[in-house]
Amino acid sequence: MFRQTGKNLLFLWSVFCSIQKHKGECGELCSLRFTWQRPAKAASSEQDFLYGTFVQLLGLARELADAGLKKLHVEKEPGRNNLFALAAFDSGVVAEFELNETLPGSMPDTFFIKANFTHGHLTNQPIVGYFNVEGSIFADESGLRQFTVDSCDPEIAGSMLENIMTLCRLKGTPEMSGWEQLTEAVRKAVEQ
After folding, report:
1. Could you tell me the sign of the dihedral formed by the alpha carbons of 69, 75, 78, 80, in that order?
2. pTM summary value
3. Which of 69, 115, 117, 135 has the largest count of CB atoms under 10 Å?
4. Burial bucket for residue 16 (CB in 10 Å: 0-12, 13-18, 19+)
C-alpha cells in the first residue's frame, strides 16, 4: 500500500496523532501493539509491504517510544504479506506488530494501535464485540459473519487509508527521519 519513499504517510493517521497528543496523560509508555489487516485482493507488493507499510509502522512506534530502535525480530511467512514482529527501543518500550494482507475478500481493512501506559491505555480498538470473548468473526470468500453475545455493533475501521491520502494531498507527506536505518533493520531481520 505504502511505497518505500523516506516519507511517512501514517504520521497523519488520526489514531497516531491522538496517542502522540495525549501520551503524557496516562503515565509512561510501556508497550505498543499495531494491527494491520487487509484482504488479499488489496495486498501490496511484498517489497512495499515490508519496506513501505511495515517500515512506516515501525517509524510510528519509534516516534511514540521517543527512542532509537534497539532490537527487531521479524517472523514472516515466505511469499505472503503476513508477518509478526517485535521491536525493542532504547527507552525500554516494546512494540508488537501483526501485519496481514492475506485475509478473505469478504473482510474489511482493520487497523489498530494500542498504546499501553503505566496508568492506562489509548487505542482505537473496540472494547467489546470484536477481537474479544464477547464476539467473534468468521470470514471466507463467501462472506463475513459476526457473532456477538450482546447487541453492540462492532466498529470496523473503513476509510482510514483514503483519509490519510487526502490529508497527504492537502498537507504534503511528512518526512521520516532515520528511514534508511529502519529499512536496513527490517532487511536484516527478515533475512535471519
Report:
1. negative
2. 0.83
3. 115
4. buried
The pLDDT score that the predictor gives to residue 142 is 77
Give the separation between CA 48 and CA 2, rounded to whole angstroms.
6
* Cβ-contact 169, 155 below 8 angstroms: no
**Which CATH class, in words, describes the domain spanning 30-191?**
alpha beta
Question: Are 99 and 110 a contacting pair, CB within 8 Å?
Answer: no
What average pLDDT values come out for the chain (192 residues) when binned by 10 residues? 81 89 88 95 94 96 97 96 98 97 90 89 69 54 61 42 80 89 94 82
- The single residue listed with the C-alpha cell 507499510 is 53
Domain map (residue ranges) of the chain: 30-191
